[in-house]
Amino acid sequence: MIRSLIFDLGRVIVPFDFRRGYERMSERCGLPPEEVRARLKADGMVRDFESGRMDSHEFHRRVAQLLESDVDYDEFREIWFSIFLPETLVPDSLLEQLHARYRTVLLSNTNPMHFEMIRERYPILRHFDALVLSYETGAMKPDPRIYEAAVSAAGCAPRECFFTDDIPEYVEGARRMGIDAVLFEGAEKLQQELRARGVLPPQ
After folding, report:
1. What whole-number distance in Å separates Cα of residue 37 and Cα of residue 122?
2. Of 203, 193, 202, nearest to 2 (Cα)?
């Protein structure tokens, strides 16, 4: 029996497109968007940021240096957040319905700059009882430690947790921990999976 529901954030609850950020930063620093992407990927600092090994101000300083830009912190914060799209992928009403009957946990590879702004701008997050964030736990999916933190936050056995994520590797990581996990393929398919487990009533 499922007792707790665990959701990924990006491309499950909130849609995003990295190209939007690369294009915005390109306009600001003069480098082509693909060069912006290539430099950030090669440096590896985003992983450090999402693992909690640097704070937002240090990340801004290093990106500005890497891209040879004088963009200030507040402007960079808006550019960095611009990857997110306004409409959520899962309806607020669905999460509200689920939260009324189950403990809900958010499990995300993210960073403090993104998450602080997401919390400010997406009211849907009020439906989560617990937040398990990579930069706070010091581990990123598919590291077993972050799933252990999610199960602890869920307050039940791994087999009593349902988890959905848009990345197959992260779904498999959860399954290895004994969690009932499925690939996110849209809100309609998610509801089918939840009905099959008795979490939602049949249509």
Report:
1. 26
2. 193
Q: Indicate the domain borders of the chain.
A: 4-15+87-196, 18-81
CATH number at 4-15+87-196: 3.40.50.1000
Q: Model pTM greater than 0.90?
A: yes
Residue 39 to residues 27, 71, 120, Cα–Cα distance (Å): 16, 16, 29
- CA dist., res. 131 & res. 41, Å (int): 27
CA gap 18, 21 in Å, rounded: 5
pLDDT at 203: 82
Tokens linked to 72: 């200030």
Place of tokens 């999402």: 50
> Cα–Cα distance between 131 and 104 in angstroms, integer?
9
SS3 171: helix
The CATH architecture of the domain made up of 18-81 is: Orthogonal Bundle (1.10)
Say how far apart CA 184 and CA 117 lie, in whole Å: 24
pLDDT, position 57 = 97
- Cα separation, 187 vs 15, in Å, equals 12
Cβ atoms of residues 52 and 136 within 8 Å: yes
Mean pLDDT per 10-residue segment, the chain (203 residues): 98 97 96 96 94 97 96 96 97 98 98 97 98 98 98 98 98 98 98 98 89
Amino acid at site 55: D
